[in-house]
Amino acid sequence: MQPNPNPNPNPISARAALDRMTPYTPGKPIWEVQSEYGLDRIVKLASNENPLGPSPKALEAMRELLPELHRYPDDRARKLVGALSKHYRLPESHFIATNGGDEFIKLLSEAYLEKGDEVVLPSPTFSEYEFGAILMEAAIVKVPLREGFRYSVDDILEQVCERTKLVYLCSPNNPTGTYLPRTELTRLLDRLPRGVLLVIDAAYSHFASAADYTDGMDLIAAGYPVVVLHTFSKIYGLAGIRVGFAAASESIMEAILRVKEPFNVNALAQTAALAALGDKEHIEASRRLNEKGRRQLYEGLARLSIPYVESMSNFVLAEIGERAGVVYEELLKRGVIVRPGHGWGLDRWLRLSVGTEEENSFLLEQLYVISITKGILFKDM
């Protein structure tokens, strides 16, 4: 047989929407930095992970399940959904478990967006909201946050029109740590036109300490057209097995279930999430550690004359200045992984996850060393 001189005579074109997509860029993994710089000790403060690790109850539950891994998981995660129903005092029909929060964003886009629809979202914020919109060929309308990265309900409402289908609100917001108070949230909902769905991403809600904060679950009970997105990746410490959930009215969930794949949440994830949900000791310990760690970072950054944004989350956004990229690379060389802000258009900023007291101290020490050895005076930037 003669070889084909043209092995690809009829190339298949991918969808044009893919040209608008930018792949998600996660924080550098520990092994990569170890390999690149030949380091033994690495402190990772880039991905907003729980420095206490997973819930101990979740670990034990997964160990007990290992002999049953030849069985398919429950396609609806019914035990987990039942526990969520009791925890939040909403009907089981109002919940769906997903393969992390990212999957739900994609499912919501597939269920509700059509070509020509518009999605309104703050800027900067979590990039996956854009991914879902672009996938369905919807238009993205960005609403810049105000000074201090504050939300403005009026600015959001100005961008809502007859083509608007979804409005995203990450509160506390990633990467800024700012939030929208409950009174403003209800004002937004009361003024949104019929046919517009508000999506509240409450992934970091457990870390919010403001008295006027709400994750939006009470608004579902009140009958508002709102979806609340949660994750087990943050305070529960289960980022590595990918499990989250969303809550909304039964009619909204019926639409989501039409596009959901079967067995989307694996058996270990379901079991771990169920156990972690009830591990109050781990949740409270994680919350206390985070509050203490935030104060530690605030005080350390202030000593270095580095401006920062007060956060309701488990990270702090710090304004390093025009040499933020240099500082990021220098931190890597010293075994500290943080998140550069350029992916959000924040070239002068670094996002610092809250770690243990020792990890936070190491980060602050290295920032001080860099300022001395590289002649970087943060207060002058």
From TrEMBL:
Its EC number is 2.6.1.9. Its cofactor is pyridoxal 5'-phosphate. Keywords: Amino-acid biosynthesis, Aminotransferase, Histidine biosynthesis, Pyridoxal phosphate, Transferase. The modification N6-(pyridoxal phosphate)lysine is found at residue 234. Signal peptide: none annotated. GO terms for biological process: L-histidine biosynthetic process. Transmembrane segments: none annotated. GO terms for molecular function: histidinol-phosphate transaminase activity; pyridoxal phosphate binding. It comes from the Bacteria. The keyword Amino-acid biosynthesis applies. Pathway: Amino-acid biosynthesis; L-histidine biosynthesis; L-histidine from 5-phospho-alpha-D-ribose 1-diphosphate: step 7/9. It catalyses: L-histidinol phosphate + 2-oxoglutarate = 3-(imidazol-4-yl)-2-oxopropyl phosphate + L-glutamate. It holds the Pfam family Aminotran_1_2. Residues 42-366 form the Aminotransferase class I/classII large domain. It is an enzyme of class 2 (transferase). Belongs to the class-II pyridoxal-phosphate-dependent aminotransferase family. Histidinol-phosphate aminotransferase subfamily. Homodimer. PANTHER family: HISTIDINOL-PHOSPHATE AMINOTRANSFERASE, HISTIDINOL-PHOSPHATE AMINOTRANSFERASE 2. HAMAP family: HisC_aminotrans_2 (MF_01023). This is Histidinol-phosphate aminotransferase. It comes from Cohnella thailandensis.
